Batch of 3 targets.
Target 1
Amino acid sequence: SPELEAASKATMEPPFRRPNPVPLRHDADRCIQGTNDDASISKMSCVSLGYFQDDFIHLFVRRRTRRPPMINRGYFARVQAIRQAVDNFLERTSRGGEGGGQIVSLGAGWDTNFFRLRSSSREPARYVEVDHREVTCSKARSMMKSPALRDLLADVGEDGAREEAVIDAGAGTVRGRGYYLAPADLRDPESVRKVLDASSVDYREPTLILLECVVAYLDGKATKDLLSMIAESFGDCCVLIYDMIGPDDPFGQQLIFNVESRGCPLPGIRSYPTKESHVKLLSDCGFARSGVHDMREVYEKHVVAEERKRTERIEFLDELEEWHLIMAHYCLSYGHNGVFEIGECPFEAKR
């Protein structure tokens, strides 16, 4: 991912230096949207090497590049933890073998989680994805071109006839069986709420809400407004946030410099720079219970041990000090509301 790539680059520039401010480009939104391409290429790198399985990412990624071992392992930790949270959520909300609950992914990019779940008949009752219009238009075009993806989105009507998903690539919207994709500006909670309303989510049902590398790109007020809207709208929910922390030490300063030098501002990491600030943010926004772990803790204590050991044999990584430094600058924070909980830790590995 672009953030992990920047972090990896930061470890290669000792001694750490305090970078000079970088003037941000006028097309910052476009630069931020472009991070989706980089993240998907990193995911494809992991898949091609066997870090994890994804049978659908190749339908979205146009360019393939092998990433360095540190980036591959970091991306594995992120994907594995999110998948564990999703699987734990679905296990607790399934109803007699049928999917229950809802998943909402804000800033979803080209994530393929829905298709992974649908192909194994483990999807929730409703899956909603939201992102910038340019990203959702690109994703909708890929779905339109792929018979395999359209098959997974199709439904069967009461008369037994196949009902195709409604795909509007120009508008960046897709409505399929239990699935909805639409654009919205995450800085505007009202536009996000309108998408959620249009998606037919049930605000009373248990809902898992994912925000991966979203908070760092929003300013503090926009993040608070978005999370407050979520807390007020959903009666039973868990929000899971993956993002950068630690901007004030030399490594964090170099990390920010490497990302912002590409034209991508990171106001959120300054607004919420520590694990403690993430917990306070979730509490201030109305979540009754919250917690946080940095990604080193997640990788060493929460990722399934067998998977961790298996992937460590794929590529040799000798820069352990740098690896620990990078992972300490990312975290997974989470907040719960209502009577439903995935567990004390949403991404806890099954014993």
Note: Confidence is low (pLDDT under 50) at residues 15-19.
Target 2
Amino acid sequence: KNKNFFKNLKLMKNNQEKTIFAKKNLKKLYSKTDLDFSFPSFCQKIKETFNGSFLISYGEYPPQVRCFDLENLSLKFERHLDSSIQNFQIISEDWQKLLFLRNDRHLEFHTKGGFHYKTKILTQGVDLLFNSKNNTVYIPSSKDEIFRLDLKEGRFLNSLRNDSSYRNTCGKNSFFGNILAFGNSGGIVNFWDPRIIQKSIFKIEGFKFLKKIGTKKKINCIRFDEKNEFDCFIGFENGEVILFDIRSNFPLIAKEMENSLPVISIRVDQSGKKILIANSNQIQIWEKKTGKTTKCFDSKFQINHLCKIKNSGFFFFSYAKTQNRRKIFGRNGECSFLDF
């Protein structure tokens, strides 16, 4: 018994030392890097490539995109654009193929060598979604159309139409053959099967579960849980967040943020137990099961976007200022480098 006790004690000590060593290296890696993530005026969007090796960010002014190599901790390239953008998508495993939705009704394609091609759309797009299963780009417009561009055939397909509500945002569920979700200004999320273009397969009327009666019902963001294929988060313009199991018409959680500002980003941490929710000046961490707020951080600067690095507790926040922020969130909600 004594031998087993000391053996277990030694194993526990070794595991603790390894954990402490890993945490120190992670903090050292990101806190002492010479990488400059700043932009001349502000950063609008930050996204990680599918292979997890690069970080793509867009900022102004002038409009420009920068690619950072996370493995070598260096700036890969910097490109300037002719117009500001609404959103962008990475359409390859790494940084070599990018698509930008410009504010002048153009889609702009970039390849390894830089600018490749641009095409015009009939109505101004409000969001951008890439479905890798069928190589199709979906562009919700400022009217009742969702434009579809087939990248394999190089042509526009028939648009999706469902109702007359203005569409604002979109999301994708990668577990079930890429079910597509489009949220509109009426507080309804329509779910589409990419193989069916006549009508949506089902919808969730999120506005019915808003606590603030008579407030704005516009859906600001949609996010599917990467660890649970059935969970869908819906963020509203009035600051409320609703978590749905897409198999049910009733929410698991319905809660509002304190300052009632539009929800801009929703992410689930690496443990799958906590939710990070951001609006323009606040970040909250909720327990996923109960919706209880465990942490709350106020920012002195406007937050524009939240990016989660895969398989880590590392997050990037884009700000309405020159310098971006880098944060590490532990499994228990502990945070490092919180220099708001």
Note: Confidence is low (pLDDT under 50) at residues 5-29, 328-340.
Target 3
Amino acid sequence: CSTLAWHPRYMTSAALICAAAASFLVGGGPRAPAALPRAGRIIAAIDYKDPAVAAEFQKVQERPIELVEAEIEKSGVPVPPSLNEMDMRLMLVELRMRKAGTMPGGGKAAPKKPASYGSKYEEALWEKPAFKRLIDDYRARGNTNALNLATEYLNSPRQAADRYAGTGAYDETVAAIDAAMSAKVEQQVTSGRVAFGGFPAAMGEAAIRMTLEGFGPLASLSVDVSDDGLSCRGAAEFETVEAAKACIDKYDGVDMGLGTTLEFKAL
């Protein structure tokens, strides 16, 4: 087992060990050595004693495992090669019920976006959809090790590396996190208004106006120098939605060098 698996924070309970054993017997054993500890694969996000869940599980149980895997991947969730057949079926049950809105307790109101974030991890959950999907996948599969590593890696990457680096599990999880964090965010643009940040302060308002007007006429523009005095931030309103979308698609996420990235958000 990896160093990550045997860290005291991640020791599994007897219940998870029993669940893993049951999964082994029913599913015919693991398909390949796990990249992260097998106990971390157990899905425990929903109550499998619930009649609706049991009924959905019966439908999934009747399908060949190849079709189960294909349906999961079609939903956009990658299937780790280490996942055994039982865990894969349980994973599909939850994916189906979430998609259909039939999850037990699914009637709860969606959480509201906070006015400010308490950590970089919380900010990523709200601002990076690909990262949110990755975390939801870890939760659906009960992958506690990856969840804890993701939290520490975003909030304190050096500490996470000092404690866990050097294992295959760490490398695999960090690679997935980095890919999710760097994935381009597809924004819904419904107006000509945008907020921006990251232009070098030396550009000034005139140069920024000229840059933005390359996409279409502006109705308004405001520019302020950031607190560090190195970059500019502000807001603009294009006369058309199409111009705003083109600007966002072109410049959002562009690396300006020296650790500065352009950020454009639809308003």
Note: Residues 1-44 have pLDDT under 50 and may be disordered.
